[in-house]
């Protein structure tokens, strides 16, 4: 597109134009020489970003009568002006700049944002946009090549959508490495990333307008939520995630998957239902079944594990049957829920952490326990190194994450003589160890998935309404 020496163009009173920087490949615009600045239909307008470089986000229905077709847009704010419409009403509007493409030429124009939902033309072209290289023929329309709304029904529309700025919430109570990396990487890509303390959220639960509130105010509309729910607040944390899901916000990990993965008994039942390999596991509530319970997983040594243990806490290796009975009695005395599990000796205190993002393994590392410790958790003093995994291990990790419908998961595998066995599926995997061992930017890979996921999808083609109220 030539933006330096535009040729004279002939415009009628209505023309097809494009705003590619906003993700709008086709829109009908009314030419109005009585207006100085152009105007674009926008609703749910909200500001975001730093005070010294504010941006604005808004939604657009580019096709009259197609409320199902929504284009999310964002742009830096140039100004805010008081604009008086033809009927004498004044309105304060945000002003942005966008590149106008028409007739094989392109040039930047200023645009004010306002709700033109009742107007048949979703865009108004004012004098500033027309400049000196436009010749107006007031009695004609569509002097320039006509475009088509059909472009919104193609996959190309999704693939070529601009990488707009997103507003993302990280649900986390901790200022740890993972949280800082998510904020750092998101802001480096031009997004606004807000860390929200999950326990300080409260919810308005109703059928028509469910909301999430925080510090006395309703939280804004987020493009995506990245849950980092701690084990101690799983019930309330997943309720908050569920509320965002009800609103329609894309959540990297859903409430159901977080809940199921956090309860080890439930998690193993999910894995078993999908026929995914795992160590033989048994559970019982009655103390009368202790001996039979141990027998179900084989002979000692066995693992006794609390159902909601994390970072290796609440996991005990019982070397003998008598030791196992003692540990089980102790846990029952504390009224703790636990399970017993076959000890995979050949793993030799090592496991494989596979990080699954968007349905594929993006990094893996081998974790080795500290001297004398069968647990390989890094929080327990273990060490991590990069490792090349097998095809079977990769497929098992992907299947495990899919079983819980997790967009981000740390799948821990044991290398047994019978093939890979899933030890655990973590819905809030730490990034520090895996980024350090693999030397990969895991946060960036997660944002790649989020950006692809929240782009507008092509809509089904149907008849377009071309009549409406005038301007």
Automatic annotation (TrEMBL):
GO terms of molecular function: ATP binding; metal ion binding; ribosomal S6-glutamic acid ligase activity
InterPro entries registered for this protein in UniProt: Asp_endopeptidase, ATP-grasp, ATP-grasp_RimK-type, ATP_grasp_subdomain_1, Peptidase_aspartic_dom_sf, Rimk_N, Rp_bS6_RimK/Lys_biosynth_LsyX
UniProt keywords, alphabetically: ATP-binding, Ligase, Magnesium, Manganese, Metal-binding, Nucleotide-binding, Protein biosynthesis
Source species, domain of life: Bacteria
UniProt-listed Gene3D superfamilies: 3.40.50.20, Acid Proteases, ATP-grasp fold, A domain, ATP-grasp fold, B domain
Record-level GO BP terms: SOS response; translation
Cofactor(s) it depends on: Mg(2+); Mn(2+)
A single Gene Ontology CC term: cytoplasm
Transmembrane segments: none
Domain annotation ATP-grasp: ranges: 268-451
PANTHER family in UniProt: RIBOSOMAL PROTEIN BS6--L-GLUTAMATE LIGASE, RIBOSOMAL PROTEIN S6 MODIFICATION PROTEIN
Family statement drawn from the similarity comment of this UniProt entry: In the C-terminal section; belongs to the RimK family.
NCBIfam families, per the entry: PRK10446.1 (NF007764), rimK_fam (TIGR00768)
Name the UniProt record assigns to this protein: Probable alpha-L-glutamate ligase
């Amino acid at each position: 597109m030539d933006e330096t020496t535009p040729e004279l163009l002939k415009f009628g009173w209505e023309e097809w134009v494009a705003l590619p920087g906003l993700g709008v490949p086709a829109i009908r615009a009314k030419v109005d020489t009585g207006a100085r600045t152009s105007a674009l239909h926008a609703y749910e307008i909200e500001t975001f970003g730093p005070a010294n470089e504010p941006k604005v986000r808004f939604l657009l229905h580019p096709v009259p009568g197609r409320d199902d077709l929504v284009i999310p847009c964002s742009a830096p704010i140039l100004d805010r002006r008081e604009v008086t419409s033809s009927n004498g009403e004044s309105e304060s509007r945000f002003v942005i700049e966008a590149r106008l493409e028409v007739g094989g030429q392109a040039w930047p124009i200023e645009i004010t944002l306002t709700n033109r939902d009742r107007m048949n033309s979703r865009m108004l072209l004012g004098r500033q946009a027309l400049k000196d290289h436009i010749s107006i023929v007031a009695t004609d329309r569509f002097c320039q090549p006509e475009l088509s709304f059909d472009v919104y029904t193609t996959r190309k529309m999704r693939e070529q959508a601009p990488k707009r700025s997103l507003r993302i919430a990280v649900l986390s109570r901790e200022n740890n490495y993972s949280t800082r990396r998510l904020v750092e990487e998101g802001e480096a890509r031009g997004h606004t990333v807000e860390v929200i303390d999950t326990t300080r959220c409260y919810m308005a639960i109703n059928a028509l307008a469910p909301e999430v509130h925080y510090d006395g105010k309703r939280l804004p509309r987020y493009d995506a939520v990245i849950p980092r729910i701690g084990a101690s607040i799983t019930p309330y944390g997943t309720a908050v995630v569920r509320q965002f899901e009800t609103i329609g916000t894309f959540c990297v990990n859903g409430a159901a998957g977080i809940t199921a993965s956090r309860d080890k008994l439930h998690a193993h039942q999910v894995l078993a239902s999908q026929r995914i390999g795992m160590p033989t596991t048994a559970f019982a509530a009655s103390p009368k079944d202790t001996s039979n319970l141990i027998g179900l997983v084989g002979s000692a040594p066995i693992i006794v594990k609390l159902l909601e243990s994390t970072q290796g806490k609440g996991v005990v290796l019982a070397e003998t049957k008598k030791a196992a009975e003692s540990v089980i009695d102790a846990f029952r005395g504390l009224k703790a829920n636990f399970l017993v599990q076959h000890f995979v000796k050949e793993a030799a205190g090592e496991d494989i952490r596979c990080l699954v993002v968007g349905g594929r393994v993006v990094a893996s590392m081998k974790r080795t326990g500290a001297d004398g410790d069968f647990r390989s958790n890094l929080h327990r003093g273990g060490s991590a190194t990069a490792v090349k995994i097998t095809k079977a291990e990769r497929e098992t990790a992907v299947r495990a994450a899919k079983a819980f419908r997790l967009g981000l998961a740390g799948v821990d595998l044991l290398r047994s003589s019978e093939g890979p066995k899933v030890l655990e599926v973590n819905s809030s995997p730490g990034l520090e160890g895996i980024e350090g061992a693999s030397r990969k930017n895991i946060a960036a890979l997660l944002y790649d998935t989020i950006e692809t996921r929240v782009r507008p999808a092509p809509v089904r083609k149907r008849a377009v309404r071309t009549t409406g109220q005038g301007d």
